[in-house]
Amino acid sequence: EEAIRSAAPEQVGAIEAFDVYEGASVGEGRRSLAYHVELLSPERTLGEKDVARFLERLAEVLSARGAELRRD
User: Fold this and answer.
1) Quick one: which of 8, 12, 41, 66 is 20 to 30 A from 49 by CA?
2) What DSSP state is assigned to residue 52?
3) How far apart are CA 29 and CA 12, in angstroms?
């Protein structure tokens, strides 16, 4: 959750973990985490480009921590 919030601290509201998967398809010693993330702004409505920028920043934050953002 800290990594998610650090990707856009001014836009990330609620964060909720809803799934953890550990199994052969993610690799030994690894796990897949799924989160609902609320993005918000008091100044304007956020759009698809804002979400795309957030996901790019999150991918960079995760990569620096040895993790990866799965996009599918």
Assistant:
1) 66
2) H
3) 29
